[in-house]
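Lab notebook, entry 413. We have the chain sequence and a SMILES string for adenosine-5'-triphosphate, and the next step in the workflow is to get a structural model of the bound complex before anyone spends time on docking refinements. Request logged below.

Task: model protein plus adenosine-5'-triphosphate, output structure tokens.
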Amino acid sequence: MGVEVVVDGLSKSFGPQTIWRDVSLNLPQGEISVLLGPSGTGKSVFLKSLVGLLKPDEGKVVINGTDICTCSEKDLYEVRKLFGVLFQDGALFGSMNLYDNIAFPLREHTRKSESEIRNVVLEKMEMVGLIGAEDKLPGEISGGMKKRAGLARALVLDPEILLFDEPDSGLDPVRTAVQNQLIVDLNAQIDATFLIVTHDINTARTVPDNIGMLYRRNLVMFGPREVLLTSDEPVVVQFLNGRPDGPIGMSEEKDTALVEAELAKHGRPQVPPMMPQLEVSPGLPDRTAVHRRKDRVLRQLRSLNPSAQEEILKSLTPDELALYGFASPATGSWPQQQAAPQAPAPQAPPQQFPPPQPAPAQQPAPAQPQQQMRPSPHPRQPEEEPAWPGGLQAEEETAGSRRRWFGRKRGEQ
Ligand SMILES: Nc1ncnc2c1ncn2[C@@H]1O[C@H](COP(=O)(O)OP(=O)(O)OP(=O)(O)O)[C@@H](O)[C@H]1O
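Result returned:
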């Protein structure tokens, strides 16, 4: 099973240029997460920081109990073995055929015999649909095949965390859709923790369990897919609609007056309807992360915005609704919680994302999922207060208009 990645208060600058600051999120184990953001917002820098290729200025990235920002080189080397990375162009060696490219990490980092290597390489090539292309050189294959070869190479060391840097770049919509299905199928087979950086709206709408967005040097959102996909935040709506009018400009953020003028002229864009998440192809195992996620998300349901709650509840079967103590849709408007929800008895301490906080005193029902909100850091100017003023109570956050913004508070584990 994949491992959880805990990012806490991460900030990165290059000289005077702040790339992002105070980024906190958890990548839940085995789940697929997507990171969106306009060009230049530092998504690739974020991926590189997760693997320890770039050192952030502040904050932690904790994996299996090791903070890779401060650990020794030896520990970093060990933690890196957990990662597989698919770079944009596959990052293949041009002079090696696909077989040798994919075998490369095994020859470099393991003592496997050539026959063992062959078994692993062919198994991974089969997983990504490349059997028969072993002898091809990278220059002889399409961009999509290069990506799949890069993916097979990222898989040979059995990663527990798989990072994808714009896997859809340069692919046509059909190939992108095929690749998206491949990603979901792979997740079902290896149950690793996936993080995908992408600009592709369809990918964001159909693949992940969780979505985050970087904008104006902040992580404006990270959490269950239903939250971002039902958000009416102008920057999210603009991004999901792929429209030029809105706060995101060509190179810098537009000023508010210009945005308002554009919206007055073209009308306010609507949040596009939710699309169903891709299911695993027939014949493959279920994604176990889906079950873990359901439990986790339902525990935090009440802290999410009403549209997200509605979408989450709509995705449940009648049996699941009954199991978690929710009324069925036929009985009235969503969401209707009956008595205290009866979650299935967990076999291990339940995964919660973010971790629970003590219930505020004024919240009477202890069985309700607890609040996990954070106020919006967006739009946050350098001179503004930090995102987490001390002593802010969960209930105060809930009552505020910024319910939809959430994440872990700095310092929480
Ligand atoms: N090693 C580096 N040294 C200095 N600046 C860098 C370095 N790497 C990235 N940057 C800068 O960080 C900013 C964010 O870059 P990054 O590639 O992470 O953005 P991105 O969100 O992935 O963009 P895109 O979506 O276009 O790929 C850019 O301004 C880039 O020039």
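Notes for the group: Confidence is low (pLDDT under 50) at residues 330-413. Worth checking against the assay data. The radius of gyration is 22 Å.
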